[in-house]
Known about the structure:
Blueprint: E1 2-8, H1 14-24, E2 36-44, E3 47-56, E4 59-67, H2 70-96, H3 101-109
Parallel strand pairs: 1-2
Antiparallel strand pairs: 2-3, 3-4
Helix pairs in contact: 1-2
Amino acid sequence: MKVTITGQHMEVTPAIRDHVEEKIGRIKRHFEHPLDITVILAVEKLKHNAEANVHVNGRDFFVHTSQDDMYAAIDDLAHLLDRQIIKHKERLSDQRNGQPLKHIAAADGA
C-alpha cells in the first residue's frame, strides 16, 4: 500500500501522518493487492479539509470532507472511504451472483 500525504497551507506533522496511516490502513483489509492512495490535507480559514483518492484496479474512489478539527476530518474521511469501498464490493458480488441490484430490491419488497 502506497500512501502519499500532502499538506496545503499546513505542515504535515509526524503525528498527523501516523493518524492518517492508521485510519487509512483499515482500507487495506478489503483488498489483497497493493493500493495507491493520495491524501490531501488543507486548512482554509477555520475549516480543515481532507480528501483522498484511492486507485484500485479499474476504479477510482474519491472522498472529500470538511470539519472544524483536522483529526475529526481524517476520521470522517476514513469512514466515508470505507463505506464507499464496501458498497462497491457489495455491488460487484451481487453482479457476480447474477442478480442485478434492482431485481434484488424488487424481490425483497414483494
